[in-house]
Design a protein that fits this description.
The N terminus is likely disordered. Helix 1 runs antiparallel to helix 2, helix 7 packs parallel to helix 9 and helix 9 packs parallel to helix 12. With about 400 residues, the protein is an alpha/beta fold. The protein is built from 16 helices and five strands.
C-alpha cells in the first residue's frame, strides 16, 4: 500500500494554533521562563521532543520535568561535559622580608640622644639611659640596642651624637660612623639613627632653611655612598615643641620654672619667652625643617640600582614626641626628655621600623631553638614575633644572675 500523508482538516490546524498562542500567553502571565518552555512543548505535542529540554543545563531540565525526551537525545546530553567555572586568580602581595639584624648601631644626634639631664640626680650626658644606645638595667628605658640584643644580635656601637650640636655637625658625625662601618664584613649591615635639628630651631638666630637642608642632605648622601648595601637610616623629626609648649604651659609648676631668667631663652619662643621670633614664625620654621627631612628621606628611597644602599624611615606623627605628657620632660629644664621620655622615644622608634611588624627574627628563633626557651603563655618566639618576645627575653636576662647565685649557694 503506498505511503500517503494524511492532511488534517484546516479547522484542526487552526485549533492547534489557537492552543499554541494560548499557551504562550499563559506562560507570559505566569512569568517563568522555564514554565514558558513547558507550555511551548505541550502545545507542540508529545511526538516531537524538545531539543532544548535535552541539551539545556539542569535548571532548565527541571522546568520541563513533564516532558519525556527520547532516550537517544537524553544519553547524548548526559555525555556532554559539564562546563567548569574558571576561578579568577587572586593576586597575593609578596611577603615583606624582614631585614637582617644589624651588625652596627650608630647614633647621630645631639643631647636628646645622649640622655642629657634626665633628672636632677642625673645631670648632663648619661648615654647609658639613651633611647638609642642605652645599657642601664632597671631604668625603664628599653633602648634600641637592648632590643636588638634581645633578638640575638650583637651590634657594635658607634655613639657619634654630641650634646649641643646643630645640623652643621652632621657631616662630622657621619664620617665617624662611616669610618667604623668600613670594618664590617661582607653582607653585614648598619643601622643609623639621625636626630638633629633641635638646636637649629631652639637657638637664636635660627638656622636658615637652605643651610639646614643642604647640611642634612650632604650627610645622608655620605651615608648612602659609604654604608654597606641593606643598611637602614631612621630619620627622626625635630620634636614637636608646639606640643611641648602646650603641656608645660598647662602646668603651674612647669610654667613658673620656665619664667625664671635662666630659662628665658630655653627653646624660645616655645618654652622660654626671650626670642625675636614669634610663635607663628617659629612654628613655620619647625614645619619647614621637618618637611625638608622628609623630602631627603624620600629622595634616598627613590634611588635605585647600584647606589640604592640605604633605606630611610621617617614618621613625623609617631616620632616627634606628640605622645609626650608632662612627666616625659625632665624637671631640670622641661626641655630634655626624662627617663620616661627616653623610653617613649625608644618604643616609638622601634615601632616605626622593620623589626616591629610581627615577623619573627630568624636569628633569635635559631638561638632559642636549641634551648627550649618559650615565649609568653608557652608560645614559641617564632609565633609571636620580636615585639611579643622582647619583654620576656629581657626579664629572663635580668633574672639570670640571681638564679645563678642561688644555684651556686645550693651547691
Amino acid at each position: 500500500m503506498p505511503y500517503t500523508t494524511e492532511r488534517r482538516p484546516e479547522s484542526a490546524r487552526s485549533h492547534r494554533g489557537g492552543l499554541l498562542v494560548g499557551a504562550i500567553l499563559v506562560a507570559a502571565v505566569v512569568g517563568g521562563f522555564g514554565v514558558g518552555w513547558l507550555a511551548l512543548t505541550l502545545a507542540a505535542g508529545p511526538s516531537k521532543p524538545s531539543l532544548i529540554a535535552a541539551t539545556t543545563p539542569t535548571a532548565t531540565a527541571s522546568a520541563t520535568a513533564g516532558v519525556t525526551p527520547s532516550p537517544t537525545l537524553a544519553a547524548s546530553a548526559s555525555d556532554l561535559p559539564s562546563p567548569t567555572p574558571t576561578a579568577t586568580p587572586t593576586v597575593q602581595p609578596l611577603p615583606t622580608a624582614t631585614p637582617p639584624l644589624p651588625a652596627m648601631l650608630a647614633a647621630i644626634g645631639d643631647s636628646y640622644s645622649q640622655a642629657y639631664s634626665v633628672s636632677p640626680a642625673n645631670l648632663r650626658d648619661h648615654p647609658q639611659y639613651s633611647w638609642v644606645v642605652g645599657t642601664a638595667r632597671n631604668d625603664g628605658v628599653t633602648s634600641l640596642l637592648e632590643r636588638f640584643k634581645a633578638l640575638g644580635a650583637t651590634p657594635g656601637v658607634v655613639d657619634a651624637a654630641t650634646s649641643g650640636r646643630k645640623m652643621i655637625d652632621a657631616q662630622r658625625q657621619v664620617e665617624q660612623v662611616v669610618a667604623a662601618a668600613a670594618n664590617l664584613q661582607h653582607g653585614q649591615t648598619a643601622y643609623v639613627t639621625f636626630m638633629l635639628g633641635t638646636n637649629d630651631l631652639c637657638d637664636d638666630p635660627k638656622t636658615p632653611l637652605a643651610d639646614f637642608t643642604a647640611q642634612a642632605r650632604a650627610a645622608v648622601e655620605t651615608l648612602r655612598v659609604n654604608l654597606p648595601p641593606g643598611s637602614r637610616l631612621l630619620m627622626m623629626p625635630v620634636p614637636d615643641f608646639s606640643h611641648f609648649r602646650a603641656i608645660t604651659q598647662a602646668d603651674p609648676t612647669a610654667r613658673t620654672a620656665l619664667l625664671q631668667p635662666k630659662n628665658s631663652t630655653r627653646c624660645a619662643p616655645f618654652l622660654g619667652s626671650n626670642s625675636p621670633a614669634s610663635i607663628p614664625d617659629a612654628e613655620a620654621i619647625l614645619a619647614s625643617y621637618n618637611a625638608a627631612l622628609e623630602t631627603i628621606c624620600d629622595e634616598e628611597n627613590a634611588v635605585t640600582g647600584a647606589l640604592a644602599n640605604l633605606h630611610c624611615t621617617y614618621n613625623q606623627a609617631l616620632l616627634s614626641g606628640r605622645d609626650f605628657v608632662l612627666k616625659d620632660l625632665s624637671t631640670v629644664d622641661y626641655f630634655h626628655p626624662s627617663l620616661t621620655g627616653q623610653a617613649k622615644f625608644a618604643a616609638d622608634a622601634w615601632k616605626a621600623d622593620a623589626w616591629a611588624n610581627g615577623v619573627s627574627s630568624s636569628a633569635r628563633s635559631d638561638q632559642l631553638a636549641g634551648t627550649g626557651e618559650r615565649g609568653p603563655r608557652g608560645l614559641a618566639p617564632a609565633a609571636l614575633g620580636p615585639v611579643a618576645v622582647l619583654p620576656a627575653v629581657l626579664a629572663r636576662r635580668r633574672r639570670r644572675p640571681a638564679r645563678q647565685a642561688r644555684q651556686r649557694a645550693a651547691a
